Amino acid sequence: MNRSYLSIKNLICGYGNFSLDSLNFEIGKGVFAGVIGPNGSGKTTLMKAITGELKISKGLIMLDNKNLNQLSIREKATKIAIVTQHTEEVDISVEDYVLMGRMPYRTNFQFFETKEDLSIAEKYMHLTDVFRFKDKLMSKLSGGERQLAGIARALTQEPQLLLLDEPTSQLDISHQIQVLNLVQELNAQMGLTVLMIIHDLNLASEYCDYLLLLNEGKLYKKGTPGEVIDYKTIEEVYNTVVFTQENPLSKKPAVFLVSNKILTESRKNLTDKLPDGKI
Questions:
Q1: Going by C-beta distance under 8 Å and a sequence separation of 6 or more, which residues neighbour residue 159?
Q2: Rounded-to-integer distance, Cα 64 and Cα 4, Å
Q3: Which of 43, 231, 271, 276 is 20 to 30 A from 190, comparing alpha carbons?
Q4: Of 64, 21, 26, which is closest to residue 212 (Cα–Cα)?
Q5: First to last CA, the chain
């Protein structure tokens, strides 16, 4: 892995009856990493700890060898940007929404965007293909278009770490691929470090370089998709029967579900073929 950029050391945090249990991992500079795991495994808690929304009880979050909790709000905003699964349906233009990403760079008593702000916003609107409806209201966009606008705003912050919280959960397959292809391209061309929460194991495997599998607040497994995603691990964590197979093009593992109907039929066929009728 590339040199460590995001480092989590003995992290404990949570709320109510749930807490992350001494997480330890590192994400290299320029790596596209994914966080997977069942509902309630701690994915969102981890994201909130990194953004500072949730106070940590113990441990350290280091960003480029600096304690994240010791950085000012403005410093954090110039280093980290987040795109959530629900981009706001607000009645402002796409351009004004994207320009909000320049807020951390404003000086005291600066009320208007500079030429540099406008230039940077335009650059990322073109890159995310939202410049064509820059004058359209955010509330009038489709879900996929709003997600792209959200990414444009995040990039306009010019961050070093991009956090994505289930960015494709509300999108159809064409928009899922569009968004993830864009993030993958940004990661490759700009060296942007990406940490993404994602439920879809096949999308996680196909797009991420590195995966963190959480379960019940603990780091169950970490590594490349090939090291993390196998049928035994998925069945243990998700309590669901699956089988995995290598994608012939990407050489990454793909997960196939097995319905109860097919599972029952398969077991029956196997039983019928055995001499004593037992498995």
A1: 78, 79, 80, 81, 192
A2: 7
A3: 43
A4: 26
A5: 44
pTM of the entire structure? Answer: 0.88
Beta bridge partners, 7, equal 26, 62
CA–CA separation, 56 and 69 (whole Å): 9
What pLDDT band is residue 111 in, cutting at 50, 70 and 90?
Answer: low
**pLDDT single digits (tens) 216-247:** 999 999 999 999 999 999 999 999 989 999 99
Pairing of strands 193-197, 32-36: parallel
Helix axes 143-156, 173-190, angle to 10 degrees: 20
Domains of the chain by range and CATH?
A: 4-226 (3.40.50.300)
In sequence order, what are the beta bridge partners of 61?
Answer: 8
pLDDT one-digit tens code per residue, 45-86: 999 999 888 999 999 999 999 998 888 888 888 899 999 877
Q: Are 149 and 134 in contact (CB under 8 A)?
A: no
45 token code pair: 């808690």
Mean per-residue pLDDT for 104-132? 84
Which letter does DSSP use for residue 10 in this model?
Answer: E
Please state, in angstroms and rounded to a whole number, the distance separating the CA atoms of residues 121 and 236.
45
Full DSSP string of 160-187? SEEEEESTTTTS-HHHHHHHHHHHHHHH
SS3 for 108? Answer: coil
